[in-house]
Amino acid sequence: MRCYSRPAFALDRIELLSNGRIAYLLKTRRRGRIHRVMSPMEFMARLAAFIPPPKIPLVRYHGVFALRSSLRSPVTPNPPARAAKPEPCPGHVPRPAAPAPASPARASAGAATPHTWSSRSSRLGAWWNRSRRSVGSEA
């Protein structure tokens, strides 16, 4: 979460010069310079590069967690089983819908919790160790 709570750049490093240009203090020297001096439009163009394009996911899965990976199913959990809807008895009159719960916490308590990245990673490690042992025992 640390990367989401910090800005993409440090505000302390930005300085407006007297001629209207912007100086950005670099962390390390580059070609002997400690500042990057640019016009306001160039600075805005560099800031805009941090903004992701619309409708593009910010998290991309590669390797085993990729959508089309053949190794994804042993690593990721199966979706929860859905109960089949019972058929109503003949002559049954349905009751009106139940009122909404009083608190949102109570409504989300029954929902299935998604697996965290650490639990998926540990499942991957366990699966990898099992598969490596079976490959080594065959040889």
- The unreliable regions are none
What order do the strands of the largest sheet run in, or round the barrel if closed? 1-2-3
Distance between the termini: 44 Å
* SSE ordering: HEEEHHHH
Number of helices: 5
**How does the helix and strand content classify structurally?**
alpha+beta
* Computed Rg: 27 Å
- Coarse morphology: elongated
Query: Percent of residues in helical segments?
Result: 25-40%
What profile does the largest beta sheet have?
A: 3 strands, antiparallel
Count of DSSP strands = 3
- Mean pLDDT across all amino acids: 75
Q: What fraction strand? A: 5-15%
Structure description:
The structure is a single chain. The protein is of the alpha+beta class and 139 residues long. The protein is 32% helix and 13% strand. Strands 1-2-3 form a three-stranded antiparallel sheet. The chain is elongated. It starts with a helix and ends with a helix. The model has no long low-confidence stretch (mean pLDDT 75).
Key descriptive features of the protein:
3 strands; three-stranded antiparallel sheet; elongated; single chain; 139 residues; alpha+beta; 5 helices
